[in-house]
Design goal:
By secondary structure, the protein is mainly beta. The chain has a 16-stranded antiparallel barrel with strand order 2-4-5-6-7-8-9-10-11-12-13-16-17-18-19-20. A hairpin with a 2-residue loop joins strand 8 and strand 9 (172-177). Helix content is 4%, strand content 52%. The chain is globular. The relative contact order is 0.17. It has 1 helix and 20 strands.
């Protein structure tokens, strides 16, 4: 932790640099109205992160639910990969939406620091129907905590994007979503595999995953209950996997709020971001089974004023058969520097407490986010 404090001066230089660009902030979104019911909107944000990681676990740009490896780490990394751009095309009752960020890999830190764009969302929707790729219906967006780390407590979150057909009516949502068995050693379904046939093809489930969700809302806040039902029929197993998620954003004192999520069951790839695979080999019986996961997090956001706010959160994910036990906790301070810009600092720790392991790394991150 002392090493982190020593590096904070270097990280602070990033905040100083924002003084030079704050005058460009503009609260109005960029929109083109064709006056015939058609519109195009451009959005996204630019985000620069300076992140120092120190401890037993290898450096990552952001923590997910994996074990990044036991490495004596002391590293400062700067990147803009989270920056993203999106376009919405509105045609009558239908809206098409496409968004990309820059976590697609490529480039290096020797010359150009180039990074490849990555497709995040691509869908069309109206009041009742959504068709395309976006957040899973199992994922509760309203309950996500505000963090400078890219995903916050991903180790405990339901967090997944995929192609789906969703129908919404009243407080209900029903979806058929892309099926994939994670852990069957068949390549994990490389996306965009046009022309892949024969032995190179990923012979995954014949049935789509089914998600049902009910949303509650009132003066107290909002909450959701979601259920997941899917067929896991690869890797020498033929089973039905189920999971349930309870989540919410509950109003607290003043403008404060509490955010939480609890996921129970055979959620596999739907929760924890590689915390658990869908199927595992039981080390005791040597049988292939569906993995059970318990994942939960809670966060409290404190609005100190219209200009300053903080979030403190803790998340934990555990698996039943392989005994993975991983946690992420942090606290941040964010300043709303202009209507379009935030500047913040976050201090936290990621812990791997799997059987026989006791590893952790602390991190200090400063970020500047300019909304387009």
């Amino acid at each position: 932790m002392n090493n982190i404090i020593k590096k904070s001066t270097a990280l602070g230089l990033l905040l100083v640099g924002t003084q030079l660009i704050s005058s460009t902030a503009n609260a109005a979104p960029f929109e083109i109205d064709f006056k015939n019911g058609n519109k195009i909107k451009f959005g996204g944000y630019l985000k620069a992160d300076a992140r120092y990681v120190s401890g037993d676990l290898n450096y990552q740009d952001y923590w997910i639910g994996n074990n990044p490896g036991a490495v004596d780490t002391s590293k400062l990394g700067l990147n803009i990969k989270e920056s993203r751009f999106n376009i919405s095309y509105i045609h009558g009752d239908w809206t098409g939406f496409v968004e990309m960020d820059f976590y697609g890999g490529g480039g290096n830190e020797i010359i150009s620091n180039s990074v490849n764009p990555r497709l995040r969302h691509a869908f069309v929707k109206n009041k009742n129907w959504l068709i395309g790729q976006t957040w899973s219906t199992f994922m509760p967006l309203a309950a996500l905590v505000e963090s400078l780390d890219f995903g916050g407590p991903m180790v405990a979150e339901g967090f997944i994007r995929q192609v789906q057909i969703r129908y919404s009516v009243g407080n209900w949502q029903f979806a058929l979503e892309n099926s994939q068995t994670f852990g069957d050693n068949d390549g994990n379904g490389v996306s965009g595999n046009v022309g892949v046939t024969g032995s190179n093809n990923d012979p995954d489930s014949k049935m789509p995953d089914f998600v049902a969700r009910y949303n509650f809302q009132g003066d107290w806040g909002q909450a959701s209950v979601a259920g997941l039902l899917r067929k896991v029929d690869q890797g020498g197993i033929d089973a039905t996997a189920t999971a349930i998620s309870l989540s919410g954003k509950i109003n607290s004192i003043g403008k404060d709020d509490i955010r939480f999520q609890l996921t129970l069951g055979e959620s596999g790839r739907y929760a924890g971001i590689t915390l658990a695979t869908d199927i595992v080999v039981d080390p005791i019986s040597n049988e292939t089974k569906t993995e059970d996961t318990t994942a939960w997090y809670v966060g409290y956001r404190r609005m100190w004023s219209d200009e300053y706010r903080s979030t403190i959160f803790y998340g934990n994910g555990e698996t039943d058969i392989l005994g993975h036990d991983r946690s992420h906790y942090a606290v941040n301070l964010i300043r709303q520097y202009t209507p379009n810009m935030i500047i913040g600092v976050e201090l936290g720790k990621y812990v791997v407490d799997d059987g026989g392991l006791d590893l952790d790394s602390s991190y200090l991150q400063t970020s500047v986010k300019f909304t387009l």
